[in-house]
Write a structure and sequence with these properties.
Order of helices and strands: HEHEHEEEHEEHEEEHEHHEHHHH
Number of helices: 12
Strand order of the largest sheet: 3-4-5-2-1-6-11-8-12-7
Shape: globular
Structural class: alpha/beta
Strand content: 15-25%
Number of strands: 12
Distance between the termini: 35 Å
Helix content: 40-55%
């Protein structure tokens, strides 16, 4: 009964923080979409992390913002601001902070320092929130006051038409690489994240869409500017901070709070993204290795940490080693080739069934209309995604550590295009 009351009668004041670096193509559309959200009490803070393009100028001109002299209390360390623009002519206050370049985590820390409300959302400048996403992601906190973080679901927006935060026309990406990422995302979000939510074991909230309790994040030290996976590092840090300080807490996952984001359409961009993700995973797990096999952290240690260690961090090395071993065994005639092929076929079919189950479940639960052609395309490509793209990305993740120190604080840029908003 509580769930039916909350969406219409209760609102949690939320600050939406949008870190941006060279986002002149998408940032205005992102803010425009945020202004269309079906929510009463929120503010929008865009942090320009020293962009080399016209990100700040485009935003200021589009929304007729004016320069203000606003002191920002730095509760978390970050680079200094250069100037602040504001406008109150919109539905909600919109603030633009231009600061010296310090990386995404540093920009998020600036946004937290400037936030006026007790809860904040971090999201990417190339993403769009669905019209009801704030109500959906705030619901777990309104139901349970000890919730310190909530993750939403991220869906691919390539070739999807959105109007005022609503899906006007849903179609799967024409680009084959982006299409396969839709299958990959649905499988990932439906499987592990829903499972971990059952026992407060979530170790990652996507940087594209997450809600956090500000005072707890500040007490824990905010985002770590020295890691490449600041989103996961913060969640793991919250687990450790709350457990060590005997704070009753929960980290939840809202499966009906949707954020639409762009997926890379070039293999080079996808490889850069996945290298960054894998390095961030390693850095987060190594930094908080005290949680490994530590009974004090309960299921987070013996289930979640172990899962991410074996299935996420080490799995690409295991997979590549397995392929290499099979090739050597074939070369020296030490393997039953028909049995090996049959075994591999069973693995591929089983994985494809899981992928399609997750994919069509998402289509059904989100009440989306899928064309026959897109459905057939998903059936045909799921096997290709599992067999070929998976092993390509496994190799990419294995080689992620080569020369990573040079790009430690890099934003990991990928090519952007305008979001299809009507």
């Amino acid at each position: 009964m509580l769930k039916s009351i909350l969406p219409s009668d209760y609102y949690l004041p939320i600050s939406i923080i949008v870190p941006a670096y060279n986002e002149e193509v998408t940032v205005a559309d992102t803010v425009r979409s945020l202004l269309a959200l079906d929510y009463r009490s929120y503010e929008i803070i865009v942090v320009d992390d020293g962009s080399k393009d016209r990100t700040s100028e485009v935003l200021a001109e589009t929304f007729d913002m004016h320069l203000v002299h606003r002191p920002i209390r730095r509760q978390i360390n970050c680079q200094r601001e250069e100037y602040v623009y504001e406008t109150r002519a919109q539905k909600v206050p919109v603030t633009l902070i231009r600061k010296k370049n310090g990386g995404k985590a540093d920009a998020l820390n600036m946004g937290i320092n400037a936030a006026n409300f007790p809860y904040f959302i971090c999201m990417d400048a190339d993403s769009v929130l669905q019209y009801d996403s704030l109500r959906r992601i705030a619901q777990p906190i309104l139901e349970n006051g000890n919730v310190v973080a909530v993750g939403g679901i991220v869906r691919i927006s390539n070739d999807v038409e959105l109007e005022n935060g609503r899906v006007k026309h849903y179609r799967l990406p024409r680009n084959i690489l982006a299409f396969m990422q839709v299958l990959e995302y649905d499988r990932s979000f439906l499987a592990s994240r829903i499972l971990f939510d059952r026992f407060n074991g979530s170790l990652i909230i996507s940087g594209a869409f997450g809600l956090f309790k500000k005072d707890t994040v500040i007490a824990a030290g905010g985002y770590d500017s020295g890691t490449m996976g600041e989103d996961m590092e913060l969640v793991v840090k919250l687990h450790e901070y709350c457990t060590v300080n005997n704070i009753d807490y929960a980290i939840r996952y809202a499966s009906d709070a949707i954020c639409w984001t762009q997926a890379p359409e070039r293999l080079r961009d996808l490889c850069k993204q996945r290298k960054r993700w894998h390095l961030g995973l390693f850095q987060s797990m190594y930094k908080h290795r005290v949680m490994f096999s530590n009974h004090r952290f309960g299921a987070v240690s013996f289930v979640s940490y172990l899962y991410f260690l074996i299935y996420e961090l080490l799995s690409p090395f295991i997979e590549i080693f397995g392929v290499f071993t099979m090739v050597l065994a074939w070369w020296f005639d030490l393997i039953n080739v028909p049995f090996m092929l049959l075994f591999f076929l069973i693995y591929a079919v089983f994985g494809s069934v899981l992928t399609l189950t997750a994919f069509f479940s998402r289509i059904y639960t989100a009440d989306l209309t899928l064309s026959f052609g897109d459905g057939l395309k998903a059936v045909c490509l799921c096997l290709f995604e599992l067999v070929f793209l998976r092993f390509i990305l496994a190799w990419v993740r294995c080689t992620a550590f080569i020369g990573y120190r040079k790009k430690k604080l890099s934003w990991g840029r990928i090519e952007r295009r305008k979001i299809d908003l009507k």
